[in-house]
């Protein structure tokens, strides 16, 4: 890419977050969508564009246009994360070097509470009781989502959520509603009149999805930091939904072959367990 930076990065519409000394991450100031990463490692800078934002004028979507690879698989080698669901677990062009830690994480613990240390915020989640978790045996429901609005406000073709009853979420000495209205800590974007999205004001991390009238709120599972290193599915806290509900809104996918591959991989893993 030419220097100086392209106009879009200097337009004021994007916010820069340095996740390490060599990696810049740019996200949309308005909705929080991850847009561009710039890896300033050895050699020429590498530019990475979020595939969830790609649009082609012929309207064909991404089917067959991308050569997909799996990166940073060493970060999830404990339980594999989503790797076993993709391409039936066969790695393609993968990198096995761990990446930098995110700024916003939920630390899971052996006690019935986990905390999310956002900048200037400590958010705690209490473990659900039998009434809250229904058939999930004291765990939160989690799953993948390919819907259009999630894709556009995150920048990623697939997002992942856990669903938590609002009364189990604590924020220091203040309530959850006070946190949601504090724009110095979380930024807010509405994708429809009754749906609000919340992202970290500092790093752009996807934090909350909330639909008005519900007693629950969805939290981005990527923020969970497992008690056991690299067990990133955090299955001591999360009950991952089975195929086909484990991948919601497959009909919205911009790369239907990729999402179908992911869903089939999840189905195969479910069948083996």
TrEMBL record:
Gene3D superfamilies listed in its UniProt record: glutathione-dependent formaldehyde- activating enzyme (gfa)
InterPro entries registered for this protein in UniProt: Mss4-like_sf
Source organism, top-level taxon: Eukaryota
Xref: PANTHER family: CENP-V_GFA DOMAIN-CONTAINING PROTEIN-RELATED, GFA DOMAIN-CONTAINING PROTEIN
Protein name: Uncharacterized protein
Lineage: Eukaryota, Fungi, Dikarya, Ascomycota, Pezizomycotina
């Amino acid at each position: 890419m030419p220097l100086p930076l392209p106009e879009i990065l200097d337009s004021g519409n994007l916010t820069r977050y340095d996740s390490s000394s060599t990696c810049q991450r740019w996200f949309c100031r308005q909705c929080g969508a991850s847009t561009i990463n710039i890896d300033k490692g050895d050699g020429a800078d590498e530019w990475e564009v979020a595939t969830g934002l790609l649009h082609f004028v012929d309207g064909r979507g991404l089917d067959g246009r991308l050569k997909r690879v799996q990166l940073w698989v060493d970060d999830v080698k404990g339980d594999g994360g989503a790797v076993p669901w993709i391409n039936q677990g066969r790695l393609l062009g993968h990198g096995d070097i761990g990446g930098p830690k995110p700024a916003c994480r939920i630390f899971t613990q052996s006690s019935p509470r986990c905390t999310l240390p956002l900048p200037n915020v400590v958010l705690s989640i209490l473990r659900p009781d039998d009434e809250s978790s229904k058939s999930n045996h004291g765990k939160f429901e989690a799953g993948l989502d390919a819907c259009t609005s999630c894709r556009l406000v995150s920048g990623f073709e697939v997002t992942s959520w856990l669903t938590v009853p609002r009364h189990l979420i604590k924020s220091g000495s203040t309530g959850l509603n006070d946190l949601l209205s504090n724009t110095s800590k979380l930024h807010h974007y509405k994708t429809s009149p009754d749906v609000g999205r919340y992202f970290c004001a500092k790093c752009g991390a996807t934090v909350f999805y909330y639909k008005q009238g519900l007693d629950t709120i969805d939290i981005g599972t990527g923020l969970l930091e497992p008690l056991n290193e690299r067990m990133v599915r955090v299955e001591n806290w999360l009950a991952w939904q089975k195929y086909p509900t484990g991948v919601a809104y497959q009909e919205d996918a911009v790369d239907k072959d990729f999402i179908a591959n992911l869903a089939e991989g999840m189905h195969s893993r479910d069948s083996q367990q």
